[in-house]
Design a protein that fits this description.
Helices cover 41% and strands 19% of the residues. It is α/β, with parallel strands linked by helices. The strands form two sheets. Strands 2-5-1-6-7 form a five-stranded parallel beta sheet, sandwiched between helices.
């Protein structure tokens, strides 16, 4: 079933516009044609750790992810096998007992900050995309999102950005640009770039 399923990886810094790109691809294809696999669902199970140890986890480091489980489940989807996708709680800093049932679809999108960092995962992909965005814009989006969604103050978000997000982005995320088949500058605001990408993916799907 390999040749009937297209695997697309979408990477980029936090706040770069990845979700917007994914939404546009989903909208451009026929209904129920796409399954989205978020990298954020695959943080490691931390059941054995103490509360303090969990709170100390750096979620912007490659070691925070369960790559083996992700690769196994993407391969299952590619081979026409449904998966039970894990769910993760930022509040508990641990995996939840609930899972999400995901059926294989003609297009599988893996989306997350470090989607392109793991070679075994990259090798499964038919198309690799990096969503690029100015660092100032990403910071502003992080401030807006974290204040609304996570109850953080501006100073908390800025401190976290400078201490963790920025150095991790420069060390791990930005270098994965070189693995991309396509880089979309200006992130989710680049309507022409996203439009060209969608047309290309529509072409891939129509040949299946």
């Amino acid at each position: 079933m390999d040749n009937k399923i297209t695997i697309i990886g979408i990477a980029g810094g936090t706040g770069s516009g990845k979700s917007t790109v994914v939404r546009k691809i989903v909208e451009a294809l026929p209904p129920h044609h796409v399954a989205v696999v978020p990298l954020d669902s695959y943080y490691n199970d931390t059941t054995e750790l103490t509360h303090e140890e969990r709170k100390a986890i750096n979620f912007d480091h490659p070691d925070a992810f369960d790559w083996k489980l992700l690769i196994r489940q993407v391969n299952d989807l590619r081979n026409g096998i449904a998966i039970e996708q894990p769910t993760y709680s930022y509040i508990l800093s641990n995996r939840l007992s609930e899972t999400i049932h995901v059926e294989p679809k003609p297009v599988i999108i893996i989306e997350g900050i470090m989607t392109l960092i793991n070679k075994k995962l990259r090798d499964i992909m038919d198309l690799k995309i990096y969503v690029d965005c100015d660092s100032d814009e990403r910071l502003i989006r992080n401030i807006q999102r974290d204040i609304i969604d996570r109850g953080r103050t501006v100073s908390m978000v800025v401190d976290r950005y400078l201490e963790i997000l920025k150095p991790m982005h420069e060390q791990f995320i930005e270098p994965t640009k070189r693995f991309a088949d396509l880089i979309i500058p200006q992130g989710g605001d680049n309507e022409k770039g996203i439009g060209i990408l969608c047309k290309y993916i529509e072409g891939l799907v129509s040949t299946l």
